[in-house]
Amino acid sequence: MAKRRDIGTRSTALRDRRRVIAGLACLPLVNSGMASNPGSHAVVKKIGDADRAQFLEAICEVVVPATESPGAVEAGVPAYLAMMWHEGLLPSNLDNLIHEMDRLAGQRLVGAPYARKSAIISAVDAEAFGAASSGRLSEDLRVVWRSVKRQILIGYYTSEVGASKELRYELVPRRYDADILLEDDAPAFSSDWRALMVS
After folding, report:
1. In 46, 117, 132, 161, which residue has its Cα 20 to 30 A from 183's Cα atom?
2. d(C-alpha 150, C-alpha 145), whole Å
3. Which among 157, 149, 161 has a CA at the least distance from the CA of 70?
4. Helix, strand or coil for residue 189?
5. 31, 182, 180, 38: which is closest to 96 by C-alpha?
6. What is the percentage of the chain residues whose pLDDT exceeds 70?
7. Distance (Å, rounded) from C-alpha 121 to C-alpha 54?
8. How far apart, in whole angstroms, are the C-alpha atoms of residue 40 and residue 24?
9. How high is the pLDDT of residue 19?
10. Please, what is the average pLDDT of the chain?
11. Which helix (H) or strand (E) element contains residue 26?
12. Ramachandran angles phi, psi of 130, nearest 5°
């Protein structure tokens, strides 16, 4: 008689699935040449885990704020990002981005008022995702921000909060209807991975 394989709990399986998805999302970084130019990644001052965790929480609070549904902080995304960092799935020069955003804020970003944090993050986001760079942010840091923001969104929309409260979650999909009417404010389905595409 074949021995039954222990596949672990559902939460373990979901966590493992999120790690695989996050790892796959980071694969483009391998081909981007980020690791090929070590001189461009020199960190001025090493940032400790506690300071990095505070930074990740600060940006999560702005990127996906709490509204009618809980935001990224309440969904546990900062802890997810910290795990990604320790697993080597976030860019190695994340600390450089932290220093640069602190410089733009004129202080530690985590200690800035919410409006100031929001303005800095909006400026960095526009620079990173804009068609043309103004030169305020190096290409390396633009790539880092795109990667971090992508992971914030993946972490949020694959969390229980993001998938079931912000999006529409159905454990078992209904029958296929090719042409149905949707209300303008109807939330997207959490099983629709096109919602996670960030260019």
Report:
1. 161
2. 8
3. 161
4. strand
5. 38
6. 69
7. 15
8. 24
9. 60
10. 78
11. helix 10-31
12. -70, 155
In this structure, what token pair is assigned to residue 79? 């802890």
Dist. CA 158–CA 62, nearest whole Å:
18
* Letter string b/e over residues 97-111, b meaning 16 or more CB atoms within 10 A of that residue's CB: bbbbbbebbeeebbe
Of 25-39, 54-68, 117-131, 171-185, where does mean pLDDT reach its minimum?
25-39
**Cα→Cα distances 89→82, 124, 179, Å:** 10, 21, 40
Task: Give me 191's structure tokens.
Answer: 């099983």
pLDDT at 29 > cutoff 70 = no
Q: 168 - beta bridge partners?
A: 189
State which amino acid sits at residue 26: C
Supply 176's token pair.
């296929």
pLDDT for the residue 23: 55
CA-to-CA dists, residue 51 to 57, 86, 142, angstroms: 10, 14, 21
pLDDT (mean) for 23-37: 43
The shares of helix, strand and coil residues in the chain, as percent rounded to the nearest 5, are: 60, 0, 40
